[in-house]
């Protein structure tokens, strides 16, 4: 493990040296952003596959609803029929989890790297790097102690929090729109009864984007940069991969509003004629 961390520290250090002419004192922070982008680029094919899987699962919702209705009294048969439908359509219910799972090791590597005073028996030179005066190994409470919310270090976190809040709000709106257009069928247990608390969890899903604020506040700044960068990437990637879905949702909404106006207009005409 020590040798692996030393190799990872060397990688980050090399990226920082490469970027130093452009970013000077913030070269290590820029290296972390670049490393994050490379990780996300590596898992992008899986994100595309997850998007295709999500669209396929959405397309299968009417058939799944029919299977639930047909086999409602036989939960085992219902689950088997749903699995057979997924297999026939080559849809994996777990495909959406893979991109997130594969990113976790990179986050924990950065967390450990910038939380350790020494790597491979040598002082951790990366801890001497900072972003606009805020040490990459420091945390928000260190910044508050070093000058308060609007001190030099505190303002770095203010900027990160503002960016995370903007991205979380964007993701929240996308999730609400997607859930409204494609309501999830209630999860059931082996007895066919709704799983307790699942409804509340579904309602909480759109709010999970804001949990990133807590993560940024408690982890080392280097890990926080990773989280902010990958969150921003996810929002842009999601908007691009699901743009046809959102376009269809907007078209259906516009058609519904047009139909509503047409009905109201026809009603008004009939009232005048009367």
Question: Can you offer a commentary on this structure?
Answer:
The chain has a two-stranded antiparallel sheet. It has 274 residues and is mostly helical. Mean pLDDT is 81; it is low at 187-193. The N and C termini lie far apart (85 Å). Helix 2 crosses helix 3 and helix 4 (98-113) packs antiparallel against helix 9. It is 72% helix and 3% strand. Strand 1 (118-119) and strand 2 form a beta hairpin. The chain has helices at residues 2-23, 27-70, 75-88, 98-113, 140-145, 152-181, 198-204, 212-218, 221-241, 243-273, and strands at 118-119, 122-123, 130-131, 134-135. The longest helix is centred in the first third of the chain and has 44 residues, at 27-70.
Topology readout:
Elements: H1 2-23, H2 27-70, H3 75-88, H4 98-113, E1 118-119, E2 122-123, E3 130-131, E4 134-135, H5 140-145, H6 152-181, H7 198-204, H8 212-218, H9 221-241, H10 243-273
Antiparallel strand pairs: 1-2, 3-4
Helix pairs in contact: 1-2, 2-3, 2-4, 2-9, 4-9, 6-8, 6-9, 8-9
